[in-house]
Amino acid sequence: MHRSIVHIDMDAFYASVEQKDDPNLKNKPIVVGGSPYERGVVCTASYEARKYGIRSAMPTTKAKKLCPELLIIPVRMERYIEISNQIQEIFEQYTDFIEPISLDEAFLDVSGSDSIRIGLEIKTRIKQELNLTASVGISINKFLAKLASGYQKPDGFTVIEQKDIHQFLDLLPVGKLWGVGPKTEKELNRIGIYRVHDLLNYDESTLTSRFGKKGIELLNYARGKDDRPVENKSRRKSLGEECTFVKDTDDLNLLKEQILHQCEAIVEKLKKDNLLIRTLTVKVKYEDFTQLSRTISFTGYTRELKALYEYSEKVLIEKIPRDKKLRLIGIQVSNILYPNEPMQIQLNFDRMF
Asked: Which backbone phi and psi does 336 adopt, to 5 degrees?
């Protein structure tokens, strides 16, 4: 059975976060980067700025010359990490097999599930919940999934099915292959290889003698082959469940019922992986899209449904204002204890408030 790999790539991530946080920057050419007076460089350019030929790693002095009305926004790394963590929380609700590549992209292995449904759902949730766009690629391996996500940027959604692999790859510039940078592309061009089909028609022994092991890797990519697994690069730091209501609500019974279901789902995940948690967060989004979260920490570790639900309910009632209707409610647990790690067993709920 072929794997099902989803590659999520946020569109102009840093710049899009700035435009999201400051509506006055919408539809304007902006870059996130250093000052042109201090030899700064562009970290990310909005798509409006890219129309002027502005790209990442370009000196901001050059970017400003290409577009005199360009706005240069200082880097706010803490904010980008915060948003990246929220995106990661969405991923974690669909699979445990997540390989972050950077703050703005990741591979997800969803083999055995409906990858197209999951990809569309994640893309929609990122737009609805974070007001950002992501490009999504889906295929049978990491190379093809990443190729697919970049095919229709921005805000793209591309699926490369098994039957379409060779047709999709055949006429692509060889520079699109994984691991082919400008230097390698020039070397390939020098021997008459410009497109993927040129590579496939080239003598394999000549490629290996010229490029060594990399020659074989390039041939495999040209054939659509990539056996690398999706690798979790770090232990997950949190687990979460949330629900966006079809209709905004202030019905306390409905809210309590929803957090009970969310606590049940979280407890199932904790039991499955033999995990314990110490910190619990209740977060809400109001009808006017403002958000609020309240966090508590137990004095010991637990995964008991009774503890999670009772204190989620207590936070909801005592710490979350309900003067406006809610459009979303969610539970997140963090400070996760993995098996064989030392733990403090006792719980003292009375000290949590």
From this structure: -85, 135
